[in-house]
Amino acid sequence: MSKNQFNNVTHCIFDMDGLLLDTEKLYSDAFNRITNRYGKEFTWEHKAQTMGFKTTAVAEAVVEMLSLPLTVDEFQSEIIKIYEEIFPSANLMPGAERLLTHLKQNNIPFALATSSSKENFELKTQRWTEVFNLFNHKVLGGSDPDVVHGKPAPDIFLIAAKRFPDNPNPSKCLVFEDAPNGVKAALSAGMQVVMVPDPQLPKRYIENPTLVINSLEEFKPEMFGLPSYST
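RESULT FIELD:
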């Protein structure tokens, strides 16, 4: 009998921001370029509540939480210009490329499930197209009409699972997330979830992930019945 405390999986689903790409600081800097003008600071407390939201939902939340004297449309119009400037500088997170390449080499199907829009996805990944071309498919929640409800609703992960050719049971899918709302979404979808939280995320937002690790470099695929690294 296996000593493994986790259930074996056959498919993997990855979030992107803060998990594969180091974009959380970019988001904070972008928001604070606007909020600081009004004497307001977008902090990790605010971020923890909005991580994983669709683009429009984030704008609505920031305007409301910080009581900004802007309409949501005005905020979005400004933030889009800042995104165009800073997102192309996004770097890969430690261990991301190694894990994705390993899964590809071992014929493990994996998908992307990000709340980003198509436009933002292309800005962030333009230096990493080779890495993101490894995915079997991508669900871009900010632009995908099938993703009606953003995280923490399970929609995006259930859709990502259904789009694999063999339509696996959600219990056979392992999600990788950094955001509290993403963890909730994965659990609501009936999937196991590996959380890689940012060190600055307040600990009380880490609720019930299947496994918590400090970096994708720490992930051991064999814990979930996946092929282990050869070196």
